[in-house]
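A reminder from the course coordinator: this example appears on the midterm review sheet, so study it carefully.

Given structure:
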């Protein structure tokens, strides 16, 4: 049950008012990108400054006349505001301008409605739309605000507006129940991965930073990737095998944006939990963006809001091809990778990213030179089946001299399965246990 926009009406007049507490002057360019992503044709961009928003129209009388003139000049029937409007302001503006008015939150919701593909994604978008529209229901029923008595006008004891709000509450409750089931299913899947000790790595970052392109390059998946804001809405999970680590789950998630509506954050909790429950976050950053540092900060704010700020993070600076720099890994004082510079489009630096992920995820390793006697054939076969044997030579007595390297967990499990004592097995060898 989506609130479908009427066909046509893509000719839009955009309005951006700079307020004293506005910290994001570059927000205008992002607003233009949002309008383009929604399918609107920008006919005019009207800008201005105010000390405080007008309680009635958000803008002043003079700016309202300018907007009205732009609508008439360009035959536009949609006005987009780069701000959050109160329901009353939106109604007053529509009455004065005689055309549809949409604020920033409504615009983002419209884009989300276009991008949703999965059952879960559609539910989440519908929930956000319903909660957003519930405060604006009066717009469609102004002639029924006061239901009058009389023959043919006696109703069930509530106005049409009250009926609609009751139906909305019922629908919202139903969606919450369905999403709760989705959360339970996701939680069960995560619990199974934890029990199997399979690491989960989630791609997070500002919208249009190149997460889906990177995801496709790493996994050979065919996730939709485009130069649009919110090209990806539904989460996608793929398996990836890394040396010394084994299988990991890589998740592509919805992009973040500054001033992301709280209703959207609440609605997308089921999806964003993939990030909160991850073993490692790959924070993808558009390295060529002039707002790189601010975008990083906005993503960190959303991560804090969904309680994912304590998950270990590896920065991935993407779009290096636009900077004409060589790929590299940045490390901290202890030698641990903290950032990787690469280009997901050209593939330059992808090997460095995989190496950095491996270093951040690799478990404690067991490494040793083992002497295996001929009668210990079962042990030798188990080591080969585990893929732990790096090299093998035979001495004059027929013993196998094996160079063994595997995770400490696999080594312990092998000893248990073979009913062997580690001290006895290593008595005549010099093992080395390492933790990269």
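Designed residues:
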């Amino acid at each position: 049950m989506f609130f479908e926009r009427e066909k046509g009406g893509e000719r839009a007049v955009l309005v951006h008012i700079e307020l004293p507490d506005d910290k994001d002057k570059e927000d205008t360019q992002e607003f233009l990108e949002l309008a383009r992503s929604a399918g609107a044709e920008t006919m005019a961009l009207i800008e201005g400054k105010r000390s405080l928003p007008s309680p009635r129209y958000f803008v002043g009388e003079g700016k309202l006349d300018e907007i009205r003139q732009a609508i008439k000049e360009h035959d536009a029937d949609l006005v987009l505001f780069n701000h959050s409007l109160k329901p009353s302001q939106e109604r007053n503006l529509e009455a004065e301008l005689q055309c549809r008015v949409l604020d920033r939150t409504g615009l983002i919701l419209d884009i989300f409605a276009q991008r949703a593909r999965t059952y879960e994604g559609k539910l989440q978008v519908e929930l956000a739309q319903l909660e957003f529209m519930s405060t604006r229901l009066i717009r469609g029923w102004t002639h029924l605000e006061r239901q009058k008595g009389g023959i043919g006008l006696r109703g069930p004891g509530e106005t049409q507006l009250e009926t609609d709000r009751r139906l909305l509450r019922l629908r919202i409750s139903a969606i919450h129940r369905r999403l709760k089931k989705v959360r339970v299913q996701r939680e069960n899947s995560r619990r199974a991965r934890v029990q199997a000790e399979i690491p989960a790595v989630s791609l997070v970052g500002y919208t249009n930073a190149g997460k889906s392109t990177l995801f496709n390059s790493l996994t050979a998946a065919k996730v939709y990737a485009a130069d649009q804001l919110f090209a990806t809405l539904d989460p996608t999970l793929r398996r990836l095998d890394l040396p010394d680590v084994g299988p990991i789950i890589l998740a592509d998630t919805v992009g973040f944006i500054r001033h992301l509506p709280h209703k959207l954050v609440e609605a997308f909790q089921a999806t964003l939990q993939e990030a909160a429950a991850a073993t490692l976050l790959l924070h993808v950053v558009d390295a060529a963006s002039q707002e790189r540092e601010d975008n990083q900060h906005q993503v960190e704010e959303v991560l804090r809001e969904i309680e994912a700020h304590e998950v270990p993070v590896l920065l991935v600076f993407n779009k290096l091809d636009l900077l004409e720099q060589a790929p590299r890994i940045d490390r901290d004082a202890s030698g641990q990778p903290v950032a990787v510079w690469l280009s997901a489009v050209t593939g330059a630096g992808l090997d460095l990213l995989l190496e950095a992920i491996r270093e951040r995820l690799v478990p404690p390793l067991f490494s040793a030179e083992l002497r295996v006697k001929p009668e210990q054939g079962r042990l030798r076969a188990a080591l080969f089946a585990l893929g732990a044997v790096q090299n093998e030579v035979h001495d004059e007595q027929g013993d196998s001299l094996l160079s063994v390297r595997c995770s400490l967990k696999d080594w312990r499990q092998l000893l248990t399965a073979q009913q062997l004592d580690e001290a006895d097995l290593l008595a005549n060898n010099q093992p080395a246990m390492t933790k990269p």
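Confidence is low (pLDDT under 50) at residues 1-9, 139-155, 430-436. The first strand starts at residue 11 and ends at 18.
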